[in-house]
């Protein structure tokens, strides 16, 4: 069978039935998602040293921690967990601190960071 001018031997049947390779890929991706979620669960309950090691391991497979300290608060990217009153107009609306880091798996948001935002006094 030729798809886009490329010959694919044994990858798909003429009647559209998924191949074993497709099924294995789907299974591997589902298992990866489950393992990443388990790591995030463990990370939330771990000591600082273990958190660092888990974040390094996740980063090696494309899952990176998101800390928004100093960024402009964006409710589509961040979850507000608290507020810090300030009289400094330059700080208002900025993230004062990331309470719980978020995570991205390449371009996909797994979890938005929970942040504390500077607000006017």
What's the quick description here?
This protein is an alpha+beta fold and 121 residues long. The protein has helices at 20-43, 48-59; strands at 2-3, 6-7, 63-66, 79-86, 95-100, 102-105, 108-111, 114-120.
Number of domains as seen in the coordinates = 1
Number of helices: 2
Total strand count, please? 8
Shape: elongated
Give the % helix: 25-40%
Q: What do we call the CATH topology?
A: Nucleotide Exchange Factor Grpe, Chain A, domain 2
Radius of gyration, rounded? 21 Å
**Mean residue pLDDT:** 90
Provide the CATH superfamily: Head domain of nucleotide exchange factor GrpE
Helix- and strand-based class? alpha+beta
**Low-confidence segments:** 1-10
- Sheet with most strands: 3 strands, antiparallel
Tell me the span between the first and last alpha carbons: 68 Å
Order of helices and strands: EEHHEEEEEE
As a percent range, the share of strand residues is 25-35%
Organism: Lentzea cavernae
Keywords: Chaperone
Protein name: GrpE protein
InterPro entries: GrpE, GrpE_head
Verbal overview:
- The longest helix is centred in the N-terminal third of the chain and has 24 residues, at 20-43.
- The protein is 30% helix and 31% strand.
- The strands form three sheets. The protein has a three-stranded antiparallel beta sheet. Strands 4-8-5 form a three-stranded mixed beta sheet, with no helix packed on it. The protein has a two-stranded antiparallel sheet with strand order 1-2.
- Mean pLDDT is 90; it is low at 1-10.
- It has a single domain, classed as Head domain of nucleotide exchange factor GrpE (Nucleotide Exchange Factor Grpe, Chain A, domain 2, Roll).
- The chain has 121 residues and is α+β, with helices and mostly antiparallel strands.
- It is elongated and about 60 Å long.
- It is built from two helices and eight strands, in the order ββααββββββ.
- Pfam families: GrpE (PF01025).
- Keywords: Chaperone.
- This is GrpE protein.
């Amino acid at each position: 069978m030729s798809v886009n001018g490329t010959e694919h031997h044994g990858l798909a049947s003429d009647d559209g039935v998924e191949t074993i390779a497709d099924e294995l890929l789907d299974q591997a991706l589902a298992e990866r998602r489950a393992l990443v979620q388990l790591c995030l669960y463990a990370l939330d309950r771990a000591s600082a040293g273990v958190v660092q090691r888990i974040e390094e391991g996740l980063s090696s497979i494309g899952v990176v921690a998101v800390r928004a300290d100093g960024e402009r608060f964006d409710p589509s990217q961040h979850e507000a967990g608290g507020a810090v009153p300030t009289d400094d107009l330059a700080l208002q609306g900025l993230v004062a601190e990331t309470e719980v880091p978020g995570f991205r798996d390449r371009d996909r948001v797994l979890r938005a960071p929970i942040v504390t935002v500077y607000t006017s006094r």
